[in-house]
Design brief:
The structure is a homodimer.
Chain A lengths: L2 H13 L8 E3 L6 E4 L3 E10 L11 H17 L4 E11 L5 H18 L3 E8 L5 E10 L16 E5 L4 H10 L17 H14 L7 H8 L3 E4 L4 H12 L1 E5 L1 H9 L2 H17 L6 E5 L12 E9 L6 E4 L15
Parallel strand pairs in A: 4-5, 9-12
Antiparallel strand pairs in A: 1-2, 3-6, 4-6, 7-10, 7-11, 8-10, 9-11
Helix pairs in contact in A: 1-3, 2-3, 4-5, 4-9, 5-9, 8-9
Chain lengths: ~325, ~325
């Protein structure tokens, strides 16, 4: 199948959604796309590589498509913006099965529709045997808001999370332990135990996270002083806010255990593994933000759970602490990983 | 070396250029970058894969950096826009030599400075052994112009080219024939013959093309009715204008031979190979446009050479002809390639 033939199959899949065309002045098919903008555009890129960021025996093409879009939309949301468009770049072994590519495309299109932002263009290239890489660039509109940076946290603010913590990491731990998803494609849900349900939801979340991206603009409107999307774990990404802002993020261990460890994680992987995942599990893409104490939003999309305070940096400099101590876990390093 | 350490080495290289910061509201280091815009943004993406789009024994990291930026800026130019920012996504085998990555980064930074558009962000991920992929997204500003599409060519227009034809393809043919660049890094130019000079210039152009991207906005201002950047060869890309516009592009064989075959190409690879490269050589990234006959611009950046006429599509439908016949050569297909 030639590049032209493949593109002829793929491109219409992005045009079937009712939102296609909104804000898109020039759609796929020319040298470049043209999207509407006002004053500024938020831009970000994130990619997934087969064998590194997903395994074919765990994730379908559809899962990969959902996940790579979710990662990018979460980055846009973490600035306080709404995603307005996506570019998709795929480099694939020419022997890749067409069905897989179609499934990937459907996952990308489904996530794009969920996020309300059209796929406006892309690029297809060939890669060495066995290699597939999917790179997505997302564009966002601040709709008049100031961007929420990592550097604005101030002593007196509270630290809050929208979305889950550690689900993706716990799901990965389950996969790595050889666990089979209790809701296998051909098995049916049947009569699952609570532990089986918990196991399945974590494995599902690892394959295709759905971050609360609608909460980014809500946080910005409420007066968030800093925000980040949790791609490398709470400790590592929270530490980035601490360093960029020159403060200490003093997290409350009891709050974290009560709101984020109790539930599916503790049930499925136990207290010790679960606690480590709450602190350092990667690829969650939930939003971590700081707010003036009276400004935590009542968010229609996801609750913002207060998990700590911003305090003056002590003699050790900017850092993140949990229960007053620096956690021994770090976080996810894509390049060492 | 960790991801953080590597990024700490790379990111400052994009900030050393004097242009950094212009139009960039939020620079690399946050979840996303924010660039200024007015009304619309042109967006495009193009990538290069080691072993597919370059060979390490032919191209340095610096060459790859120059080329991947040039491809993207040419796409922006072909809409009539000026490039305003770049995102760079690199997926690399963690064993990749640091020197190579630094050299790539320098190439990207040099081309970005040449094009006047800052690198505003990016993404670094690990890839399987031996794999390196570089994906670039470029943003552009139409500065109030209407985008120049592929679909606007009208009977009576003339067809013109800014930049060279077939140089990159002829350079590739020289590499594939086992030719050594007469100006090898450690050899010095010395007393080269005309043929050696021609050989070297084509091989250099294949490694790191410099398209006349400044000519895109000039063409738009002059009233270009359609435009495309020549990434897959004159016949294939010109055919795209013909199909999108529903016309025939009737190219003049004598003009093409006189202006584009004569010179370095004919000298270095001969008439037959050279003519095939003029018609179908890929990765040139010169601009092909159509203009009302009296509107071909007097371009300070590159001459626009008239190479044919736009005529009504005949019974065979929209097509490109050279000397009245459909050329037997086709063009470059990245996915079959």
């Amino acid at each position: 199948m030639s590049e032209s033939d493949l593109l002829a199959r793929i491109i219409p899949m992005f045009g079937e959604s009712p939102f296609a065309g909104s804000g898109v002045l020039v759609a796929p098919g020319d040298d470049a796309a043209v999207i509407t903008a006002r004053e500024s555009v938020v831009v970000t890129t994130d990619s997934m590589v087969r064998g590194r960021d997903w395994r074919d025996d765990w994730s379908s093409g559809h899962d990969v498509g959902l996940k790579v879009v979710a990662q990018n939309v979460a980055d846009v949301a973490a600035m306080g913006a709404v995603a307005t468009g996506l570019l998709v770049s795929v480099a694939a072994d020419p022997e890749t099965e067409l069905d897989w590519v179609i499934d990937l495309t459907r996952g990308i299109a489904d996530a794009a529709e969920d996020a309300g932002c059209p796929v406006v263009g892309g690029d297809l290239s060939s890669a060495p045997a066995g290699v597939i890489m999917v790179a997505v660039t997302a564009f966002g509109d601040l709709q008049g808001r100031m961007p929420v940076l990592r550097s604005g946290a101030r002593p007196g603010d509270v630290v809050a999370v929208a979305g889950s913590l550690g689900w993706s990491g716990a799901g990965l731990a389950l996969y790595e332990a050889g666990t089979t998803d209790p809701i296998a494609p051909n098995a049916g849900a049947g009569h699952l135990t609570a532990m089986e349900r918990a196991t399945s939801v974590l494995m599902w979340f690892h394959r295709s996270p759905r971050p609360p991206w609608e909460s980014g603009p809500v946080a910005a409107d409420a007066g968030a002083t800093s925000m980040i999307d949790l791609s490398d774990g709470l400790v590592r990404d929270g530490g980035r806010i601490a360093v960029a802002s020159g403060v200490e993020l003093a997290l409350d261990e009891a709050q974290l255990r009560e709101h984020f460890l109790a539930g599916p994680i503790e049930l499925a992987v136990g207290t010790d593994v679960g606690w480590r995942q709450v602190l350092s599990g990667g690829e969650e893409h939930s939003l971590l933000a700081t707010f003036p104490a009276d400004a935590v939003p009542d968010d229609p999309h996801a609750p913002w759970t207060v998990i700590g305070q911003v305090v003056e940096a002590g003699p050790q400099g900017p850092r993140l602490t949990v229960g007053g101590a620096v956690p021994s876990v770090t976080g996810w390093d894509h390049f060492a990983g």
